[in-house]
Design goal:
CATH architecture: 3-Layer(aba) Sandwich
Distance between the termini: 56 Å
Number of strands: 3
Strand content: 5-15%
CATH superfamily: Vaccinia Virus protein VP39
Shape: globular
Number of helices: 7
Order of helices and strands: HHHHEHEHHE
Helix content: 40-55%
CATH class: Alpha Beta
């Protein structure tokens, strides 16, 4: 029996696998991102270089816009421009991250379904 057929046989009657049930965007955020530490670093670095507080963040390849969400929650006048080519992941971020923000914070995130190399922000 080929390896593929053996795998298919093992899956019969068992329902979906854990891998199939997992949300890739949740896994990405948990495995790759620590937005709190990232924004701490941005704040500290900008302050040390410019002697002032940053107010605008451009998040290239934003994916779920999780970093932008953290940014606008830090200060009431922070703005974020979140840019990504993948409309599907942008929609996921709207539903799962931006929707959890209060209206004011959510209004300060500008989602752009565009190419980071050519977008005018």
């Amino acid at each position: 029996m080929s390896r593929k057929n053996k795998h298919q046989k093992n899956q019969k009657g068992k329902g979906t696998t854990l891998a199939n049930q997992a949300d890739r965007y949740v896994l990405y955020e948990k495995a790759v991102q620590c937005v709190e530490a990232e924004i701490d670093m941005v704040d500290e670095t900008f302050q040390s270089l410019r002697s002032r507080t940053a107010r605008i963040l451009r998040e290239d390849f934003c994916g779920t816009a999780n970093t932008s969400c953290e940014w606008v929650q830090r200060r009431d006048d922070n703005q974020a421009y979140a840019v990504d080519l993948d409309k599907k992941v942008i929609r996921w971020g709207e539903k799962h991250n931006i929707a959890k923000l209060n209206d004011d914070a959510a209004s300060r995130i500008h989602l752009l379904n565009d190419d980071v190399l050519t977008v005018d922000v």
